[in-house]
Amino acid sequence: MDKQELRENTKKRIDALFDKLEALEDKFKNASETRKLELKREMDEARKLRDDLQIKYNDLQQATEGSAKELKEAFEQSAKIFRDRLDKISQNFKRGYKRENSEEG
Asked: How far is the C-alpha of 25 from the C-alpha of 66, rounded, in Å?
């Protein structure tokens, strides 16, 4: 895989992760006040992880041959942590949605 192809794949991955966070942001905005209080800390953490991932992505894009491997590993690790956090938040939204619907019925 050449450098340009690697950049394109990395860009697609980061865009997909950021799109997932944006979808969670929409759910968060439309959540009940109780759910917002429950998930605020997690959403704040996800936003911080997004910012960190963006910085690592920018560093990776500017990397020289010598630093690219180390920066790619740092980016991959941050991307995994970010993705795991988004998955956890998504699961919390699903659990909260099921609980709210069972309370209504």
From this structure: 37
